[in-house]
Every structure is written in structure tokens, then in C-alpha cells.
Amino acid sequence: MKSVGIALFAATILHAEITINDIDKLVNDIKQERVGLTDKEIVNAKDPFIYPNGKYAKALHGNRSKKRRYRFVLTAIVNNHVKINRRWYSLNSKVNGFTVSKVGKNYVLLTRNGERTRVFLKRQKSKKIKLLVK
Question: SS3 sequence, 51-104?
């Protein structure tokens, strides 16, 4: 349908006369079934891409181990209790496989298998509420 519209538009621009027969011919050309490759030809087809040093991309990137990244948002600290990702945790409790090891004044230390992650308090964007500590 798009081709017919383009043909009509082109005909009006070029001031050429187009007939219904010409439109029917265009539609029939579009409707013709196109023959592709057989499954056997697809399997036996040579890879069209060129890889650096003749190596395949899978070989180049296959040895990488993906590190899972966690996002921790620390929003509150009260004594030895912390609010991470909208849930409350206490000292030595588990958060996504990490252990709450230390609770500081404005941060929490999370550990797992020797890996240490410090998560700092998220600052409030609102300046309407201020807490004063004496």
C-alpha cells in the first residue's frame, strides 16, 4: 500500500500519467512470493563477518565472568539498625547475600566472601525537615 502511495505521489510530481493497470502491476509485483534460502543452505553458509586475528567473537568474550552488580540505597541509620532499599536491617543481618558488618555515623559496611562495600547515607533533597542532634 505504501508503494502505491509513493507511486501516485511520484506520478503527480513528475506530471506523468499513471493508469489503474500500472497500479495493479505494482501491487502484483509486491504480492509475488519471494524465495529465500533453504534450511540446509543456511546451515552451510559461510560466516560473512571478519574477526580480528581470525578469532570468533565468542572466543574473545567467552572467558569473561560477569559480576553481578547490586544497588544499595541507604536511607536511615538508627543505632545499629539501618534502612537499605526500603527495608530495615540490624547489625550482622543479610542483605542480598551481604552481611551488615559495621554501622557508622553516615555509612554501612557490607561484606561478602572478602568483598567489602561501603554504602553511604543518601542525602535528603527536601530542606523542609531538619534534624538537630545535641
Answer: CHHHCCHHHHHCCCCCCCCCCCCEEEEECCEEEECCEEEECCCEECCEEEEEEC
